[in-house]
Amino acid sequence: MTAAKQDVVSRRRSGAGPYLVVGNWKMNGDRRRSAILAAELAGGWPEIDPAVTLVACPPSVYLQSVGSLLRGSGVALGAQDLCEQEKPGAFTGEVHGAMLKDLGCRYVVVGHSERRRLYGDDDERVAHKFATALACGLTPILCIGETADERDAGVTEAVLKRQLHAIIARCGARAFADAVLAYEPVWAIGTGRSAAPEQAQAVHAFLRGELRTANAKLADCAPILYGGSVKSDNAHALFSCADVDGGLIGGASLKAADFLAIADAARHR
């Protein structure tokens, strides 16, 4: 990359808010390990930083214990999923957004590729979950992304547009004033592969363009995260892209030192 191109890529947009670094612990850990990790994160990020917002999303059974350890620190609590039903009731095994809010959650992930692929969360259900999260006062983190086959077939933009516009059709583009968008190329999740900064920037610019077409006023302010094998050694380059506003971190969020190093890369991008 030339110096001139790097300068353009590194310049953040006018109106962009703080970087957001979200740790998705997935179905990992036990009570003891979760407590240790939460305590290490709270100790390593003890105060709210106006430049970088940190979020930890533990398994739902540990939300209360992890939340109690994070309370008073600079790390916010998030959940990995929620039930799409608008009201609590006879939905065995599900967790309603109001329950997450009651436990102190501020954020909730919706539409993660693993939920789409393994548990049948199609675009319509994801849009329903997104709407329910907003109604419960939670900030949804909407995950969208293409598979390796879809990228190879040259339909990345078509796939992302379909997934994004399912939300816009149900909730309106204005909903992204209170939400987060996360681009997670499925081919880069848990594989060790990551999109090059130029690839990530190109997709994020496309997504911002779609938001701008739908609502020009909020497009530059809406945070768009990159998720897909983000590590401490590539975080700075990814976060330096003009349209990358942080990361959705999987495996690297399970070690406090690694996760905090990624957050520090956002702080010093």
Please characterize this protein's 3D structure.
The structure is a single chain. With 269 residues, the protein is α/β, with parallel strands linked by helices. It has eleven helices and eight strands. It has helices at residues 3-10, 31-44, 63-70, 97-102, 113-119, 123-135, 148-152, 156-171, 197-214, 235-239, 256-267, and strands at 19-24, 52-57, 75-79, 107-110, 139-144, 180-183, 224-226, 246-249. An eight-stranded parallel β-sheet has the order 7-6-5-4-3-2-1-8. Helix 8 runs parallel beside helix 9 (197-214). It is globular and about 45 Å long.
SSE order and pairing:
Layout (H helix, E strand, L loop, with lengths): L2 H8 L8 E6 L6 H14 L7 E6 L5 H8 L4 E5 L17 H6 L4 E4 L2 H7 L3 H13 L3 E6 L3 H5 L3 H16 L8 E4 L13 H18 L9 E3 L8 H5 L6 E4 L6 H12 L2
Parallel strand pairs: 1-2, 1-8, 2-3, 3-4, 4-5, 5-6, 6-7
Helix pairs in contact: 2-3, 2-11, 6-8, 8-9
Question: Nearest-angstrom radius of gyration?
Answer: 17 Å
Given helix and strand content, the structural type is alpha/beta
Strand tally: 8
Secondary-structure element order, N to C: HEHEHEHEHHEHHEHEHEH
- Please count the helical segments: 11
Strand fraction = 5-15%
Spatial sequence of strands, sheet with the most strands = 7-6-5-4-3-2-1-8
Helix content: 40-55%
What distance separates the N and C termini? Answer: 17 Å
- Overall pLDDT level: 93
Main beta sheet: strand number and arrangement? 8 strands, parallel
Oligomeric status: single chain
Low-pLDDT segments: 1-11
The gross shape turns out to be globular
